[in-house]
Amino acid sequence: MAFIHRRGLMLGAAALGAFAITGRAQAQAPAAAPAPAPTGPFTLAPLPYGFDANEAAIDARTMELHWRFHHGAQVANLNRALVGQDAFAAMQLDELLMNLSRVPEAVRGAIRNNGGGHANHTMFWEIMGGRGGEPTGDLLAAINRDLGGMTEFRNRFNAASMGVFGSGWAFVTVTPSGALAITTRPNQDNPLMDGQRVLMGNDVWEHAYYLRYQNRRNEYVSNWWNILNWDKIAARYGAAMAGTLRV
User: Fold this and answer.
1) ∠ CA(71), CA(77), CA(78), 5° rounding?
2) pLDDT, position 5
């Protein structure tokens, strides 16, 4: 019996060794290249800074995964949904989101989700990469007038961010006259879908912060203010009043 037992162990070890060798060979074999995403009117623009530029709030690995794979997939899926939809593919992104009711029902959901995500993230990357602090000039005056000053604004915006159930965004909208308001949207919805322009916003999907913060959204929301680029946000404010702000 002892001989049989030892023989069984030897056979088992040999089988495991063969499996390990086969597994290593398979792991080392080049993976099949993914099918190329449909080309189309929309592209994933490069980040305006390095992946590590926002380390005061967001780690470099999260930035890379978020931009390359989450945002990148939305751009590819938006182009895929627009195949054969020439009239809508010719629109600017903000026009497309403002005209969702005209989009064929068969592709409306894909265009809503991926087009909204593309607009949201395009804005998101633009307003970060800074060192926080506070705005000045006309933007600060608008915050004091409409949002109760910087302390009250931060508290209200953080509360809105924490109040998003599940996945979504907190935004500050801006009118052509420069009036500001805080709002939220679920999933990848964007205020453009309701005819409103976005000054700034924070992504509170878990993929935006989970590697560093896990379930501690409140820490992410608090630290996010440390990487805002108020010069970029002020430029968006000026563009809104000039009628040139898009997404």
Assistant:
1) 90
2) 37
* Buried residues in 57-76 as b, exposed as e (16+ CB within 10 A): bbbeebbebbbeebbbebbb
Query: How many other β-carbons are positioned within 10 Å of the β-carbon of residue 114?
Result: 24
Q: pLDDT value at position 37?
A: 56
With a CB cutoff of 8 Å and minimum separation 6, the contacts of 171 are 182, 183, 184, 185, 190, 191, 198, 199, 200, 201
How many other C-beta atoms lie within 10 A of the C-beta of residue 154? 17
Determine the length of the chain.
247
Cα–Cα nearest to 246, from 97, 94, 123, 134: 94
Looking at residue 10, its amino acid is M
Is 221:155 a contact under the CB 8 Å cutoff? Answer: no
**Tens of pLDDT along 36-49?**
556 899 999 999 99
What is the Cα–Cα distance from 190 to 97, expressed in whole angstroms?
8
Task: Locate 123 and state its tokens.
Answer: 């804005």
pLDDT value at 7 more than 60? no
